Predict the structure of rRNA adenine N(6)-methyltransferase.
Amino acid sequence: MFYRVSLFSHCLKTLSTNIITMKYNKKKQHHAVATSFTSALKNSNGINKKKINNNRNISTSKVQNANKMNMILYKKHGQHLLKNPGILDKIIYAAKIKSSDTVLEIGCGTGNLTIKLLPICKKVITIDIDARMISEVKKRCLYEGYNNLEVYEGDAIKTQFPRFDICTANLPYKISSPLVFKLIAHRPLFKCAVLMFQKEFAERMLANVGDRIYSRLTVNVKLFCKVIKICNVDRSSFNPPPKVDSIVLKLIPKETNFKISYDEWDNLLRICFSRKRKTLHAIFKRNAVLNMLEHNYKNYCSLNKIVPINYNFKKYCLDTLTYCELDEKRSINLDENDFLKLLLEFNKKGIHFFNISNINNKELGSILSDEEDQV
């Protein structure tokens, strides 16, 4: 009897141990299956960032990983996409766009500003050098159902602008200066341009007479445009962020009652601001400047059948400065009206700042440097 009880106890103990072992193995198998499923799910959804980063590491010295749309932004084009919707709204509000206006947008990027412009204006004309950006903007516009977009692929500096009412742009900073000068010279006049510039460049446009950063750019803009500061833009508002902050400016062209050649006006400023802290007498007595002006003067006399002066041209030129009482003045201390007065007085005497017999004067390009504001 005792043997039967012992055998029964042993069997019961063995059965209990087997049941516990089976439960543990079942739980372990369930955990393994769950872990495998979770891992597969992560890989299919792209959550495994380490693996993805290794597969998509395609940046080089010429390109940068850019936006959430997985589009590579080219450094050579200065591509930084404005992602802050608040800044986009400020640009649109400052432009005061009407439903009858045609808006010219320089550098559409992926269309963040373009999409906001399309429903509030008659037409948007956009110019971009990158065909991928143009393709992206077209897709977004078709998806949103807009048909008032006109696109041009090319360099905005080399492209002839069509007629437009308002210009908006998040500019590549390297084309800021030539684009501003191109807009100033554009005819017919437009209503306004709301543009984003590098902070240092914008501050030069806003500078006052006598400021350290007062320059040819300042005079050029203030003669032809009224400049209004709209807002500051932190570098974190871009994707990828640039190394500098930005400023949005509004340029309103002035209705001028004088007719001057913009090329000639700009060439005068190039001469004056080549050494902006020296007196105008010291600048204009340089042989390179005198030789260029004398050559243009003789061409002017020949074309207009005028007898040239029979005395020293240097005296003839410097006497003009004395007559305007500007010979001892420095460019950094003169405003746009002083330079305009000087140009008109030179022109009265037949002295011009470009070769009127040959607009593509190679000599002018070799004498005058693009560098300005040298101390």
About this structure: Residues 272 and 331 are 6 Å apart (CA to CA). The chain has a mean pLDDT of 79. Residues 2-45 form the longest helix (44 residues).
